[in-house]
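User: Hi! Is it possible to get a structure for several chains at once, not just one? Here's what I have:
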Amino acid sequence: MKQSILFSKTRKEVSAESESINHQLLVRGGFVNQLMSGVYTYLPMGFKVLKKIENIVREEMEEIGGQEILMPALQPKENWEITGRWDTMDDLFKFTSFYSKTDLAIGPTHEEVITPLAKHQIFSYKDLPKYIFQIQTKFRDEERAKSGLLRGREFLMKDLYSFNTSEKELDDYYDGMIKVYNKIYKQIGIADKTYLTFAPGGTFSKYSHEFQTETPAGEDIIYLCKKCKVAINKEIIDEQKVCPECESSDLKEIKSIEVGNIFKLKTKFSQSFNLTYTDKNGKSHLIQMGCYGLGISRLMGTIVEVCHDERGIIWPKEVAPFDIHLISISEDEKSNKIYEILKKEGFDVLFDDREESAGSKFKDADLIGIPTRIVISSKLAKDKKVEIKKRSESDPEIINEEDLIKYLKRS
Amino acid sequence: MKQSILFSKTRKEVSAESESINHQLLVRGGFVNQLMSGVYTYLPMGFKVLKKIENIVREEMEEIGGQEILMPALQPKENWEITGRWDTMDDLFKFTSFYSKTDLAIGPTHEEVITPLAKHQIFSYKDLPKYIFQIQTKFRDEERAKSGLLRGREFLMKDLYSFNTSEKELDDYYDGMIKVYNKIYKQIGIADKTYLTFAPGGTFSKYSHEFQTETPAGEDIIYLCKKCKVAINKEIIDEQKVCPECESSDLKEIKSIEVGNIFKLKTKFSQSFNLTYTDKNGKSHLIQMGCYGLGISRLMGTIVEVCHDERGIIWPKEVAPFDIHLISISEDEKSNKIYEILKKEGFDVLFDDREESAGSKFKDADLIGIPTRIVISSKLAKDKKVEIKKRSESDPEIINEEDLIKYLKRS
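Assistant: Yes, the chains can be modeled jointly so their relative placement is included. Here is the combined structure:
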């Protein structure tokens, strides 16, 4: 894509109220635009990153047996009264339809939709197990929506719900999901700083698990076990001064952001909605449920918090908006030729064909953070050379123009 | 996918209140589940159809220069006060945030977001033209949400907004979009019954255009010109008794559903938000805007209204949930082998491996409406034959097992 026609401009400054790094860099880089506190528009490059994360997550969910559906944001009050959460959930956006006079919510989660829905699809043990997920926009009336994409009032989320006949089956699927989540964090480049974390389990389970990414921008406090690299959320450290995984008490307090949360619901919701199955002998049982959340837009913000330097974002390859940032320094004809060749070879290229100074183009390239930068200048072109530089490294390389494709395919 | 593990079951009956054909067939076929009036969950097969329509539309929008973004559903009251629509738009869901005490809406349209957003991205004539679209969930407090997916309170929509320097440029893009819309309706199989329709233009334009699909389920009345096959919406027929396209007055009244609406906004919204650009001489002008809507979920409902018979849905190939419905009649081992071969050859197959009677499987196949049905029965297997039938045709063919792939690739 030519940068001159891209519907997003880099910006030198953002308003003073923007305290978080991900907000600053994403707004300045032209990835998002803030409509109001905690509510963002994803501009073309931000949309591309979001879709890349979404597709990585989708593929892994399908791999672990997930079937994708799409549930509505609008939810009726009655369902929330059945679970008793209509009045207890503070951050639920609630309102009344002018025409139907019914009370509605826009959903921050979907247990109140998926559980009654499953009653239409699951009847006997033959219909189990089932693993159902969606990637969908959620809403939360956040008290403090001030951390860019980390804590939004509107956000994109993957939520998967598991339905099993037994606790043993639920446990096995849950353990499998821990592995899958770790695989996702590895693919998107934050695995080194992301820790499985023991968290409160609610009324039905001893523990739930979070995945927490270490960052000064995080609003959570966790205690990381230096021995096994598993963490404990502050909310349970008071009861328990050792890591449940390895019994070690050598813990380090760190700030972190929750990038995933998995929960054994067991029969909490199947009981509320009387979601049952019949076994081989025709006997009825409550279904064992689990839920597995992962914030897609929050992950985008977290990646920026973890992967940046003082000049801008350093996108991990798998989620970068483009593969290559091609920069023309007064060599538009030659650059255009190379742009066409790169596209033909299958690379996704942002081509800076704007009438800007070299310095300004380099500054923007660092801010935007595409993994590989290629510079075509008159001086280099004379010797049939191009400059190539990784965003994550400090020094460029000068290579022969004719070796460019081979070089890119190797790296 | 094996039908035995699919998270959607066909249903024999739906509740009496469901008057529309698309609701009945989509619920009975296991494509959607109604949460409340005008609000649906898309089950795995419904989700697949929705995504196929979405991808056809996305490709065409990119082809005509569209850049994809994602705007929020939550919108602040202030923006709607600037355009004067906060109090005049009846179907706007409005509410107050408990924490921030601010008034919010969830958007039925996005002029109030995209116009101020464009002020951050468009400054001079060099930044124009721009064509920006999204495929996003919209909300409308509908008085009568009773036509299945045709009139929802929550629905998926594509909306593109054009930004041009001159009316001439806007006119040209608008004319190009008419061609693109017709191409989309052709691809999804409803072109024969879909007519370009003159509709009221509002304060700024003489006409807008709708695309109306003829169906008894439609709640609109249009007058179709028998000569040029262009229609006029009832709302303007009273002023004008001839077709504006060909001046003919030989018109036929038909019922229809609006499946697209394009509108020259001209400077209506750029004036409200003072969205301007500077020309070559540094002089400032208001930007010419257009908007181009297309309901993705409504299209899904419309396809069902147009493409069905008394036994069920007849999906057009391009939007069908699967390519092939493979049915095993007590020949599970052989069917499974053929299922694996079909998948390997790149076909998307729904394999009915359930323990059901042949009659019940055939009934479900007709209801679900996958374009090609293949039956493997003991009787046929003995002679190394398979039965193949198009959903749109009445008679099956018996062919040699070994000719199956060749046959499918040819058809």
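Chain B has two domains: 21-309, 322-410. The radius of gyration of chain B is 24 Å.

User: Great, thank you!
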